[in-house]
């Protein structure tokens, strides 16, 4: 708004003050801070700007509908040391968008579908007792961890299209919203990436991150092609480190933990079976098992 030169038109000052005092929001501001007429007169341009711009915020439906000159910035009045000050602060929608971006930045989704970013507990399917139980379990785990309590992760298993990935993503995003760092990875692609990182010299750095990240989530474990090297040199050490450090670790799979035996063994030898059992034991120590059976179109 272009400033108005009231000095050249002193006759309209009183009329303008009266008009402003009739505005409910401004009248409340004047009464709350016991603002004198002289103070109002000194800030007429700021008050007129506030009146004309704030109306754009009333009934606003979101950032895509914002009519302010600077999207998402809302005019705010302050009374400080006898002066009226006009500032611009992020509106509710802008703050929510900023918080969402911050939460997403804390969730490092590797090789995951786009829907991971949209998954929320609020959208989680709750029409069955099973899903309501899972919803409650995830909510409890995220709240307990946020309070500093020790938790075990979850091992979600079930057939295709029952919502395992969606549930895992919703859980990860909930942790992110609460300010916690998460790595959420599609395990078969992660394995391929780790193998290729040997050539680039980045393998140890990547493994260290998976060992130490606050919360690790591995989607579709058991869905990768078997590799004794991955089992013994990568997965085993990562899980052992996280187990010793009490770091929350989550999994999804098409099979229960014991069903991983056939994925984790190349031959039916005692040494192979023992190595597979070590992995399974670490998984079950890190995470409680939860089976999903109801079909859903979000996996």
Taken from the alpha-carbon principal axes, the silhouette is: elongated
**What share of the residues does DSSP label as strand, in percent?**
15-25%
- How many angstroms does the end-to-end distance come to? 51 Å
Number of strands: 8
- Under CATH, the homologous superfamily of the largest domain reads P-loop containing nucleotide triphosphate hydrolases
* Low-pLDDT regions: none
Task: Describe the protein.
The chain has 299 residues and is of the alpha/beta class. It has 2 domains: 6-90, no CATH class; 97-291, Rossmann fold. The protein has 11 helices and 8 strands. It has helices spanning 13-21, 24-33, 37-42, 44-54, 92-106, 129-146, 164-177, 187-200, 203-212, 228-244, 270-286, and strands at residues 73-80, 83-90, 107-110, 153-157, 182-186, 215-219, 249-253, 287-291. The strands form 2 sheets. It has a 6-stranded parallel sheet with strand order 3-5-6-7-4-8, sandwiched between helices. A hairpin with a 2-residue loop joins strand 1 (73-80) and strand 2. The protein is elongated, with a radius of gyration of 29 Å.
Please describe the topology of this protein.
Layout: H1 13-21, H2 24-33, H3 37-42, H4 44-54, E1 73-80, E2 83-90, H5 92-106, E3 107-110, H6 129-146, E4 153-157, H7 164-177, E5 182-186, H8 187-200, H9 203-212, E6 215-219, H10 228-244, E7 249-253, H11 270-286, E8 287-291
Parallel strand pairs: 3-5, 4-7, 4-8, 5-6, 6-7
Antiparallel strand pairs: 1-2
Helix pairs in contact: 1-4, 5-7, 6-7, 9-10, 10-11
């Amino acid at each position: 708004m272009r400033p108005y030169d009231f000095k050249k038109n002193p006759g309209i000052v009183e009329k303008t003050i009266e008009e402003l005092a009739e505005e409910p929001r401004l009248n409340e501001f004047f009464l709350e801070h016991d603002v004198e007429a002289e103070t109002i007169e000194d800030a007429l341009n700021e008050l007129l700007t506030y009146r004309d711009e704030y109306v754009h915020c009333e009934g606003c439906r979101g950032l895509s509908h914002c009519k302010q000159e600077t999207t998402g910035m809302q005019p705010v009045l302050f009374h400080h040391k006898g002066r009226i000050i006009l500032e611009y602060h992020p509106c509710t929608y802008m703050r929510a968008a900023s918080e969402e971006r911050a939460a997403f930045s804390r969730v490092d989704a590797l090789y995951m579908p786009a829907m991971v970013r949209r998954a929320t507990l609020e959208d989680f399917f709750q029409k069955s007792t099973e899903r309501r139980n899972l919803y409650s379990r995830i909510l409890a785990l995220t709240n307990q961890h946020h309070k500093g309590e020790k938790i075990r992760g979850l091992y979600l298993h079930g057939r295709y299209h029952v919502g395992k990935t969606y549930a895992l993503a919703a859980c990860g995003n909930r942790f992110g919203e609460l300010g916690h760092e998460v790595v959420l990875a599609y395990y078969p692609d992660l394995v391929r990436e780790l193998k290729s990182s040997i050539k680039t010299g980045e393998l140890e750095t990547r493994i260290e991150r998976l060992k130490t990240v606050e919360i690790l989530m591995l989607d579709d474990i058991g869905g990768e092609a078997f590799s004794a090297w991955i089992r013994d040199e990568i997965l085993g050490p990562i899980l052992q480190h996280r187990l010793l450090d009490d770091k929350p670790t989550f999994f999804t799979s098409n099979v229960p933990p014991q069903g991983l035996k056939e994925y984790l063994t190349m031959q039916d030898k005692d040494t192979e079976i023992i190595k597979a059992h070590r992995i399974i034991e670490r998984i079950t120590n890190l995470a409680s098992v939860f089976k999903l059976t109801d079909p859903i179109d979000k996996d």
